[in-house]
UniProtKB/TrEMBL annotation:
Protein name: signal-recognition-particle GTPase
Gene Ontology MF terms: 7S RNA binding; GTP binding; GTPase activity
PANTHER family: SIGNAL RECOGNITION PARTICLE 54K PROTEIN SRP54, SIGNAL RECOGNITION PARTICLE SUBUNIT SRP54
Keyword Ribonucleoprotein carried by entry: yes
Keywords tagged on the record: Cytoplasm, GTP-binding, Hydrolase, Nucleotide-binding, Ribonucleoprotein, RNA-binding, Signal recognition particle
Coiled-coil blocks: none
Family: Belongs to the GTP-binding SRP family. SRP54 subfamily.
Species for this entry: Candidatus Nanohalobium constans
Length: 429
C-alpha cells in the first residue's frame, strides 16, 4: 500500500545532500505516492506545504539536516493517519453494519477470535436474513473460532432474530452480523435503527473494504448520520493499493479506524496503529542512525541500571523499541550474523512483544515487581487471563531473566552510543 513512499524516503536517506532541492524532490515523490494511494489531493497539498516549511526550518541540536527532515516526514505522516485506537477488552455488545461485499460476516468471526483469545466468552448472531447462505457461513465461522452461535435459518425478521439471540446467548462479548445493501437506502436505515433499539450496542462499527479508497469518507459520514458510529473496521488491507486513502478518509471524517483486516485467516485482524504504518515507511540506512535514534528514546538507558530490573522495566524497554519502529531494521543492520544474536534479542519480534504486553497486563502488581513469586498456579491463571498458554508465560519470564542478566553485565558507558563494540563483547559476541 505504501511501498512507494518507503522507496521515496529511502532514496532521500541514501543521498549525499539534504538541501532545499533534495527536500523538494522528496516532497514531490511523497505527493505522487499518496495520490496513487488515493489520498485526497487537498490533504496531500497541505501535508506537502508543512513538510517543506518545517524541513527547512530550525532543527533540533544533535540531529543532522537529513535526520531532521526524516523526523518531520515521520511526524506529518503519523498525523495524517490519525491516532492509535483504544480497544477495551471487557464485556460489550457490538453491531457490525455496512454495504454488500464489505466483509461483515468474515469480520464478525475475526472479532470473535480476537476477543476469545483475550479471555472473553464470545457469541455471534446471524442477523443477515437477506443474503443467501449467510446463516451457514457465520455458523461455520463461529465453530472455527470457538464462539457461541445464534441464528434462525430462513428467518425473515432480522430484528426479531437479534432480540431472540440476545436472550439466548450468555456471553461476555456479543457480536451481531447485520445485512447489507447496495447502498444505504431507507430500508437499511430503518432496519439498523430497529436493531439498535433492541440490541442497545456498546459499539457500532462500519465495515468497509480498503479498495474504496477516499470514498470511505462519504460512506462513513452517511452511516454515522444514520446510526451514530463508534468506529470503522477497514478490511482487505492486504490486497488494495487504496488502503491508505481509506484510512486517511475515515480519520478526516472524525470517525476512528478501530481495526484493520490484513488477510484471509481469522487471526488476520489488528487494532489500528498508525505508528506501525509510518514505521514501515521510514527506513534508516545505517547502524549509526539507528543508534542515534536509540539514544533519543524517552526511556533513559541509565535508569534501568539503577535498582532492581523488574518486569515493568522490561515492558518499558520493549515499548521503546516498538514505538521507535526499529526492531526489524536493527536486526537487519547489525554487523554480525543472526546466529550470533542472543535468543532474548533475536526472538523478540514485534508480534511477540505485543503478546508479552498482554501477558504482563494480566499479572498482579506483586508479580510485575517480583516475577520470582510466579509459580505454576499463577502461570496458569495468567495464561487464562491473557488468552495465551502456560508455555507463552514461561517464555516471557525466560526472556525477562535473560534480559535482566544482560543488563547486569552492562556498565553505564556501554549503554551509550560509541561503545557498541564493548556492549557486544559483554553479550559474548
Amino acid at each position: 500500500m505504501f511501498d512507494k513512499i518507503k522507496d521515496s524516503i529511502q532514496k532521500f536517506s541514501s543521498s549525499n545532500v539534504a538541501d532545499e532541492e533534495a527536500v523538494e524532490q522528496l516532497v514531490k515523490d511523497i505527493q505522487r505516492d499518496l495520490i496513487k494511494a488515493d489520498v485526497d489531493v487537498s490533504l496531500v497539498s497541505d501535508l506537502s506545504d508543512e513538510i517543506r516549511e518545517e524541513s527547512l526550518g530550525e532543527k533540533k541540536d544533535g540531529l543532522s539536516r537529513k535526520e531532521h527532515v526524516l523526523e518531520v516526514v515521520y511526524n506529518k505522516l503519523e498525523e495524517l493517519l490519525g491516532e492509535e485506537s483504544e480497544v477495551e477488552i471487557e464485556p460489550q455488545t457490538i453491531l457490525l453494519c455496512g454495504l454488500y461485499g464489505a466483509g461483515k460476516t468474515t469480520t464478525t468471526g475475526k472479532l470473535a477470535d480476537f476477543y476469545r483469545k483475550r479471555g472473553m466468552k464470545v457469541g455471534v448472531i446471524a442477523a443477515d436474513t437477506d443474503r443467501p447462505a449467510a446463516f451457514e457461513q457465520l455458523q461455520q465461522i463461529a465453530d472455527d473460532v470457538e464462539a457461541s452461535f445464534y441464528g434462525e435459518k430462513d428467518a425473515e425478521d432480522p430484528v426479531q432474530v437479534v432480540e431472540n439471540g440476545k436472550e439466548e446467548l450468555d456471553v461476555d462479548v456479543l457480536i451481531v452480523d447485520s445485512a447489507g445493501r447496495n447502498s444505504l437506502n431507507d430500508d437499511l436505515k430503518q432496519e439498523l435503527s430497529d436493531m439498535e433499539k433492541v440490541l442497545q450496542p456498546d459499539e457500532k462499527y462500519l465495515v468497509i473494504p480498503a479498495d474504496i479508497g477516499q470514498s470511505a469518507r462519504d460512506q462513513a459520514e452517511n452511516f454515522d448520520d444514520a446510526v451514530g458510529l463508534s468506529g470503522v473496521i477497514v478490511t482487505k488491507m492486504d490486497s488494495s493499493a487504496k488502503g491508505g486513502g481509506a484510512l486517511v478518509a475515515c480519520q478526516h471524517a472524525d470517525i476512528s479506524v478501530k481495526f484493520i483486516g490484513t488477510g484471509e485467516k481469522m487471526a488476520d485482524l489488528e487494532v489500528y496503529d498508525p505508528v506501525d504504518f509510518v514505521s514501515d515507511m521510514i527506513g534508516q540506512p545505517d547502524l549509526e542512525s539507528l543508534l542515534e535514534k536509540i539514544e533519543e528514546l524517552d526511556t533513559d538507558p541509565e535508569a534501568i541500571l539503577e535498582g532492581e530490573f523488574t518486569l515493568e522495566d522490561f515492558q518499558e524497554q520493549m515499548a521503546s523499541v516498538t514505538d521507535s519502529g526499529m526492531m526489524e531494521e536493527m536486526m537487519s543492520q547489525l554487523p554480525f550474523s543472526s546466529d550470533q544474536i542472543p535468543d532474548n534479542v533475536a526472538n523478540l519480534t514485534e508480534g511477540k512483544i505485543q503478546s508479552y504486553n498482554v501477558i504482563i497486563d494480566s499479572m498482579t502488581d506483586e508479580e510485575v515487581k517480583d516475577p520470582s513469586v510466579i509459580n505454576r498456579e499463577r502461570r496458569e491463571r495468567i495464561a487464562n487471563g491473557s488468552g495465551t498458554s502456560v508455555e507463552d508465560v514461561q517464555e516471557l519470564i525466560k526472556h525477562y531473566r535473560q534480559t535482566k542478566n544482560m543488563v547486569d553485565k552492562f556498565d553505564k558507558k556501554s549503554m551509550k552510543r560509541g561503545n557498541m563494540q564493548n556492549m557486544m563483547q559483554k553479550l559474548g559476541l
